[in-house]
């Protein structure tokens, strides 16, 4: 799948994707299916008789309707091959095959029949396949629902689209079900609704899907509102021939070089804020790799009640992983320009950022997929300044000085996708577990959750780190806490802390392992309380 198509589909899906929705929107959503992370009920489809055998290419534009949980006849008023059109109450003829989407189970064969909704894929626009997919990407298989009726349908998506991978006739990989962030949709006749994937794991729980050829199905549960098609059923698309490519050895990140000094490649980088501060409000998701680097707007601020003047070069921006510069342009001796910074003032400038991995031989290719810190490095020379008076404010006159300072600080984050391009901050990146909406995590009596506590007080740094990772940052009150009276008890139930709630203890442990900051505690609890 080409990059432009993947990005276009990703952009279309932003309003409904829980991995693309901004954290504040996610915090405000109501999650009514948070207790289930995996589907334990297998999808089973019973198909009506029709001539011919379903081929992979024909299935690319086909949707099936599954029997509902109540075992009522699925969409009894559909028009099926071999049936008349006089009455919408006619039911399909006896099933001739079935598809079972359950780990380790044979899928079986099926023949198509008409349904009010087709589940289709944009991959079909690229030919007959097989199509290359990346199971770790934000959009694994771009799919959409199509309204095949002549009526407007009101839909409620009970779950995101789940991708199932099949080899040798049996399901070998399944989706890890997450909550739907935008469940309601209205679909005009022939209209399309873009779907969002849940992440996929192997049936044994392995995250990485081995390279090879697969057949893919996509399935989800949909409720249609009032009208002749009303009801809750499962809809599936496929099979689609797909290929998972062997992981590219790719580019190795630079290792720590004790002889290098920031902003050189391989240098250790530490926070230096001697006087001025720097930040970027740029949408780093729009930054694309380029050998010559790209311009990123920066705001430089003077937090002091003093005026400064001097000379300054253009800022340098670098990509950092684990405290080491891994993406940087060759260090040059740039020209300097004069500056005059009033007390408490800011000025706008820009810096060069490289998203190409650096190394002894220069740029070696796009940075590998993942999250990187973006740091700004800017030395400057102060040649005159005002002296603060007794009150701490700057005096009237400027006096000559000769001082050198450096701005070196984290200015933001950038996420790189599997194709080496920057992407909007996902709600959770590939490999990061899905969290519960903290606003509604504790509303079901008797439901256990695992909480990763980052702080037992309302620590803004901890909240900011969660926002940067795309997790909800709503403080959790002390009364929503475990183990009162033991070593894990919340220090003060009248306070609120910062934490992330998960339904699965394994997800909590995975988050704690991935999180780069301080984890105060990881605890399991069973509580019932309401967060205002």
**How many domain modules?**
3
- The shape is elongated
Protein structure class? mainly beta
The Cα radius of gyration reads 28 Å
Low-pLDDT residue intervals, each spanning 5 or more residues:
1-41, 45-97, 483-487
Describe the structure.
This protein is mostly beta strands and 532 residues long. Helix content is 7%, strand content 36%. The strands form 6 sheets. Strands 15, 16, 17, 18, 19, 20, 21, 22, 25, 26 and 27 form an 11-stranded mixed sheet that branches. Strands 2, 5, 7, 8, 9, 10, 12, 13 and 14 form a 9-stranded mixed sheet that branches. Strands 29-30-28-31 form a 4-stranded antiparallel sheet, with helices on one face. It has 3 domains: 3-244, no CATH class; 272-423; 438-526, no CATH class. A hairpin with a 5-residue loop joins β25 and β26. It has 5 helices and 31 strands. The chain crosses the membrane at residues 43-67. Residues 75-95 are annotated as: Disordered. Keywords: Membrane, Transmembrane, Transmembrane helix.
């Amino acid at each position: 799948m080409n990059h432009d198509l993947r990005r276009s589909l990703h952009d279309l899906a932003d309003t409904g994707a829980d991995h693309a929705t901004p954290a504040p929107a996610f915090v405000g959503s109501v999650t009514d299916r948070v207790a289930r992370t995996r589907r334990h009920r297998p999808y089973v489809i019973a198909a009506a008789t029709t001539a011919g055998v379903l081929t992979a290419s024909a299935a690319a534009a086909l949707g099936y309707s599954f029997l509902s949980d109540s075992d009522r006849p699925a969409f009894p008023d559909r028009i099926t091959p071999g049936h008349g059109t006089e009455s919408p109450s006619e039911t399909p003829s006896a099933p001739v095959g079935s598809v079972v989407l359950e780990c380790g189970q044979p899928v079986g064969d099926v023949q198509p029949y008409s349904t009010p909704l087709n589940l289709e894929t944009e991959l079909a626009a690229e030919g007959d396949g097989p199509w290359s997919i990346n199971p770790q990407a934000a959009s694994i298989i771009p799919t959409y629902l199509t309204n095949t009726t002549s009526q407007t349908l009101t839909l409620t998506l009970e779950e995101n689209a789940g991708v199932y991978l099949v080899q040798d006739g049996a399901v070998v990989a399944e989706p890890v079900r997450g909550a739907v962030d935008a469940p309601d949709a209205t679909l005009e006749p022939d209209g399309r609704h873009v779907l969002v994937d849940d992440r996929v794991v192997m049936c044994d729980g392995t995250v990485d899907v081995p390279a090879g050829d697969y057949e893919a199905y996509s399935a989800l549960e949909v409720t249609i509102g009032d009208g002749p098609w009303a009801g809750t059923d499962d809809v599936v698309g496929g099979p689609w021939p797909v290929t998972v490519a062997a992981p590219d050895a790719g580019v190795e990140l630079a290792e720590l070089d004790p002889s290098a000094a920031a902003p050189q490649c391989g240098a250790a980088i530490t926070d230096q804020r001697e006087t001025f501060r720097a930040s970027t409000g740029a949408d780093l998701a729009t930054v694309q790799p380029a050998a010559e680097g790209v311009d990123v707007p920066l705001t430089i601020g003077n937090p002091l009640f003093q005026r400064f003047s001097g000379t300054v070069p253009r800022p340098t921006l670098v990509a950092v992983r684990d405290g080491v510069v891994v993406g940087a342009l060759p260090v040059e001796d740039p020209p300097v320009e004069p500056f005059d910074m009033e007390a408490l003032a800011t000025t706008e400038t820009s810096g060069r950022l490289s998203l190409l991995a650096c190394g002894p031989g220069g740029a070696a290719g796009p940075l590998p997929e993942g999250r990187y810190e973006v740091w700004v490095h800017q030395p400057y020379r102060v040649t005159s300044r005002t002296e603060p008076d007794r009150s701490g404010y700057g005096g009237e006159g400027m006096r000559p000085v000769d001082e050198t300072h450096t701005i070196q600080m984290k200015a933001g984050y950038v996420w790189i996708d599997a194709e080496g391009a920057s992407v909007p901050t996902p709600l959770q990146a590939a490999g990061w577990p899905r969290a519960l909406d903290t606003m509604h995590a504790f509303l079901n009596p008797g439901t256990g959750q695992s909480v990763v506590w980052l702080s037992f007080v309302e620590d803004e740094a901890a909240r900011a780190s969660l926002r940067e990772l795309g997790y909800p940052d709503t403080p959790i009150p002390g009364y929503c806490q475990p183990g009162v009276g033991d070593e894990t008890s919340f220090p003060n139930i009248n306070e609120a802390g910062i934490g992330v709630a998960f339904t699965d203890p394994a997800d909590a442990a995975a988050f704690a392992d991935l999180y780069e900051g301080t984890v105060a505690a990881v605890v399991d609890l069973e509580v019932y309380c309401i967060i205002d």
